[in-house]
Please model this.
Amino acid sequence: MKKNWPVILLCLVLATGLVLPLATGASPPGFYVEVLLGGLMAGVLYSLVALGFALIFKASGVFNFAQGAMVLFAALAVARLSEQMPFWLAIVLALAIMVVLAWLIERLVLRPLVNQEGVALLMATLGVTYFLDGFGQTVWGSDIYKIELGIAKEPVMVLEQIFQGGILVNKEDFVAAIVAAALVLGLALFFQKTPTGRALRAVADDHQAAQSIGIPLNRIWVIVWSVAGLVALVAGVIWGSKLGVQFSLSQVALKALPVVILGGFTSVTGAIVGGLIIGVGEKMAEVFLGPVLVKAFDLAGGGIENWFAYMLALLFLLVRPEGLFGEKHIDRV
Amino acid sequence: MTGMENTRAHRIGEVILAVEGVSLAFGGVQALKDVSFDVREHEVRAIIGPNGAGKSSMLNVINGVYHPQQGTIRYLGREYHDMDPHEVAASGISRTFQSLALFKGMTVLDNIMAGRNLKMRTNILMQALRIGPALREEIEHREVVEGIIDFLEIQAYRKMQVGRLPYGLQKRVDLARALAMEPRVLLLDEPMAGMNLEEKQDMCRFILDVNDQFGTTIVLIEHDMGVVMDISDRLVVLDYGRKIGDGTPDEVRGNQAVIDAYLGVSH
Amino acid sequence: MLYRENGQFKSSYSSDQQMLPILQDRVLMIALLAIAFVAVPLFVSDYVFLSLLIPFLILTLAAIGLNLLVGYCGQISIGHAAFMAVGAYAAYNLALRIPQLNFLVVLVLAGFIAAAVGILFGVPSLRIKGLYLAVATLAAQFFMDWLFARVKWFTNYSPSGSVSPPPVELFGWVLDAPAEKYVFLLGVLVVFTLIAKNLVRSHIGREWMAMRDMDVAAEVIGIRPVYAKLTAFAVSAFFVGVAGALWGFVHLGSWEPLAFNLTLSLNLLFMIIIGGMGSLLGCYFGAAFIVALPIVLNQVPAWLGVPISTATASHLEFMIFGALIVFFLIVEPHGLARLWAIGKEKLRLWPFPH
Model:
């Protein structure tokens, strides 16, 4: 109990901050719910990217800094390919490309570095990020591209009876949330029920033990990276359709880092919960905390979103480094 | 051997280190259960026992690397159970490791100089400018370290990266680094593991010399029974985390519990 | 044959511990310094100063700062440009509000302020390491980005957010010619390199390296982790803060808030990976590489007769960076500095093969 009180304190502070705008009546309830929903939707998208991180880390112990670049690459592929062919074909082709990419990364980057510590691998994935950024833009071009999902982009007014003025909900975000949930469910089933999924979990637990029972490590890693590629593809399509496919997409994906910190690097549940917390926290901070800070310190505009996620992650790192759902790491001497 | 035993026996002093009722558990594993023994100054105390008996854990507790759930360590009148390793080091206890804990990125000389760290006093600014006191201090401590290098006969290797040395020499560097701290109590974790006969004889000689010349109290974990019986003044026997024997080599040799647990085959 | 230590015996510890124990190295260093300080300013064009040498000198200083933390002490930081920003803005505010201060004093004070901030953001390293620490340093990066863009006091309420510091003046001598700036920066870099070298070979340097190699063992021999890590952060931030101030005052002349963003942080990291972590010489190599690469990429295709647009060139740059990072990490994790050391080993035997 003694060790847990900083975490509890932090959660209390956050929870208070969460309900404060509503409790003090500083904002109309309808608006509050809108912001909340917006945060949740953004959170879902963060979770998607974080899922890719968590998967790769879980199975291979590598922290894939390049996940953001993979999202961008996949999105670019889909956007450009769909200009030439029907959308479903573009998706299939893009998926194939991501699998090839996964195989290449495993072969050229991971395998030679298998004995180095985590930091070297982190920097290697940084290198891959840079390479993918440049390569993607060389191959697919560097303009802003659109992905047409065929969903209406205008927000819809709902629940007008309960909240005065109703709440604006974006249909696209809603679809995104459903897709993300379906993906997570699918992945969870995959891990739990299929032999490949079981092999993946074995590898995540103990590489050597898994090898000793005949699980082909390299093949597993390719599968994991391909799954991460699939997740990147889905995230890329959704983000891309929302924001347009552009370079800044990979920066946005960087936000998924605090998500895995919060959730725990090895936890799929953590990626989801962490994503939601970061998404909501960020939006709330920007909309409600921002103006307060601007007034108090005479700031030139808001922009709290840019660092709130990281600061939150930092605080969690100090009180609970393994994240909400991660495993504690014991150093044996 | 008997003459030597006599001269050493009469130098042994009062109790300098006492382990009292120490219990240590990791998650579900009970590494140590209510272990108590003492160590007298200037003696060579061996901790023996089958694999997994908790010997390394015991040293780690004395060192402050692990904090026991119960019990305390009494050292030089002070009682502690949750000191940090560097505080323990500062109070005069140093150790070597079973799996070498050398600083792979540094040379032999730098590794041993690192052991002098506790004695170095100049602040950062003086070191940055490397004038006067800072320079003198470097040279002073270099002399001490060279003395240790001579003592352990590793002069030829002083500028080599430790990672490139053969295992036996790395063990000597580990010992040199521990000695550089000028400890009152030296904890040695299997100092002769993986050595051939000649290397073992050298290491024995070094350990006895350290005990003789510097009066350092030695607590060592060792599996080679011949070595243990020869050089130790007293033994502690651990099995599954409990103490099952405590006394001179002769006493322990005759202890039925110890024989049952482990001393079935003599070397 | 030329490069041998035969006959060079050391008869005292102080001569054994000197920086350049081999005579040929000392001769080479003196020649190099002579060329750098005297010949270069006389013969090199302004363009080369402005686009190559001046950024090279300042970035080397920053790389040394980062290398002390990452390469020698083993604490990862991917947000180090934040400390450059602190140094730059601190120097700006000092120069603006206390104009009587000598520029050298401004630099040193800016360095100390950066060091203080460095200690603050170094606190997480006491509890976390590896990639968790990397994320914490990202927090520093983004927070500083925001702080200097939004808190108007730092930019002296400038409406656009950008600042223009007064020109650098030293004892009445105004630095405006590129050659003058070059000589000044060279002097600063030489002094700081000496300081870094001294730190690295004294006991604080050994404490850092011990923490990097095996922190549990380091504690067991009496090294206090808090002291070692925080001093590493402080000294590193000091170096990098001074570099930031120089970057803003001497190289950029005026800058906007995003001048010290994540890209710069990552560039610094690449410099020390390619150059060689844990090697001061490597910082020079890495900085030279990073500064030269874009220029080479721009010029070479034109020489070869294959024109490429600037956009493609910058994409290519990214690709080459990325590929090189991976290449170096796989093939030679100790970077160009190790290749240089291997070259010197071969030189000892030359012209004999073995």
Notes: Residues 225-252 of chain C form the longest helix (28 residues). The mean pLDDT of chain C is 86. Chain C has one domain: 46-349.
